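Methods: example folding runs. The two proteins below were folded one after another, and each record is reproduced exactly as written to the output file, sequence line first and structure-token line second.
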Amino acid sequence: MRFLLLILALLLPAPAIAQDMPPILPLRERARVQNAWLAERLDSVVPRLMGEQRIDMWVLIAREYLEDPVMSTMLNAESMRARRRTILVFFDPGGGRPVERLTVSRYGMGGLFRPSWDPAAQPDQFVRLASLIAERDPRRIAVNISPNSAFADGLTHSQYEAFMAALPEALRRRVTATDALAIGWLETRIPAEMARYPEIVRIAHRIIAEGFSNRAIRPGVTTAADLVWWYRERIAALGLATWFHPSVAIFRRGAAEPLEGDAAIQPGDMLWTDFGIAYLGLNTDTQQLAYVLRPGETEAPAGLAAGLADANRAQDVLLASFRTGLSGNEILAAALERARAAGLRATIYSHPLGYHGHGAGAAIGFWDNQAADPRGNHRLRPDTAWSIELNVRAAVPEWGGQEIEFRLEEDAFFDGREVSWLDGRQTEFHLIRAR
């Protein structure tokens, strides 16, 4: 029965709040947009990072279906996978000349990298790579090996061994493991991406709003699990993807813990979702709250509204703590101190956003660790997108003083001076009628 209700809900006319959903591009147009972004990024981001880090050559090596996290984002929309073994080489010749882009493979990667290997002339791919490097004689050769970041640790052991075995000793000594190029590439957002990112977040917001409405929820019948799968079906129906399975929880007066799974949504419940989509190669990550009205109610109880407002205040405190050059740990400490001074019982666990939902860059706290963490040592850079994720605990008078976690997560952009919301933030509950 619940399955039939789910299908019917997807077929019903969308509520007014969802009718201004931004148009979603067909696949061919998406590819055009993403390829244009990639070309611009390769022309601008890579040379700047190599110059900053004083790296002459950057070598990325990946095998099909085991792509380096960085290489996965450097494949044009039609390539999609590393073919057999794909090797990408960036070489900065200095003197203001353009960074050379080569691929030691049979393919040109959408015309973005020059094919530089003829298997008929040299069957051994690594020998050819070594000869290309020797011809250019770089002083520092960067590879993606890092004990600190999975994003910069994409070179597998077998490929590293084969690479090093092919190099003469003099060049072998110039190979350096670094995470700065990989993280810098992944965390940096270009203006063309940021022109679209608010629209991507708006789509996510509209889907959340649809789910937190009587289109998807029939109080007393719909369960938390039903709503989770409604979200999954809605994402698929729109031709989008998600990078994680959505979460839905029910906060109920008298319940010691949030309810999930087969628990039915009832009037008087506060609902929470953690939700993200993947579109145009970029990800969203959002947590919002809803309230199911009791008969005769027109708004959420004042205590719940006050808790949401406290979570908004904690967001403001965190955003005010962003400074270029500070580490994630330093931002966390400053924000927690300010939150305590404001009387807020906040827990902060925010993270970069972009090519990945939990993206490369400076971690700002973890839900299970509010102290300094090695993953928070990276320093904040401009032109980065963020998931501002946190919760505030507050007592709800209407619920007999029961303490509730008010969990919020919204997406934002740091331009080097200030943080701005990509598509606003939640300041009022989504309201669901009891029917």
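Second run, written to the same file directly after the first:
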Amino acid sequence: MAHRKIAIAVSILFIVQMLTAAIGNTFVQAFVDGDPNKTALTIGVLLMMFSGLVIAAIGLVLYQVLKLTKHRLATLVPAIRIIECVVAITFGTYVLTQLQTVPDHLLWVYILAGSAGVILGYLLFISKLVPRPIAVLGIIGYGLILLGVPLDFAGVLDMNQGIGQLMLVPGALFEVVVLPIWLIAKGFNKVQQSA
């Protein structure tokens, strides 16, 4: 697949993933908050599972470009994204069969997303596949997610509200606005081999 097509595919996949996850999570959260509508719950879980499949696809498609940078490190991006997909499907199956969510389910997903994202940002930074400020935004965004998870587990903040939710904003901007707009407009730069 040509780099231009990969850039557009990645952009579309990031946007589709974020939208399906957001809508699906809204339906699941409504059920958790007391809405007894099992049809809405099922739709929400299926959207979350679909989002997981899209996450895996993002990793696999990105790998086509990232493998030209630091090959061994680049393999971690699709590997972690595939694990994230399996986790999403497993958690979704649990919700549908038990009619309750896995405690702190989003935090477990954030650990995987943040890990893959920091690696992605680093590879984009060293290779200059995109302008460095975009890569830095990714590193900061995913880094904040990784910082927020242990703080949430420790009860210092809640990643679903207040400061915790604000910590998700840079990563969301990277995935849904800045990186997709750049990739659609300009595509990936020629790979700069790193030492």
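Comment on the second run: The two ends are 26 Å apart (CA to CA).
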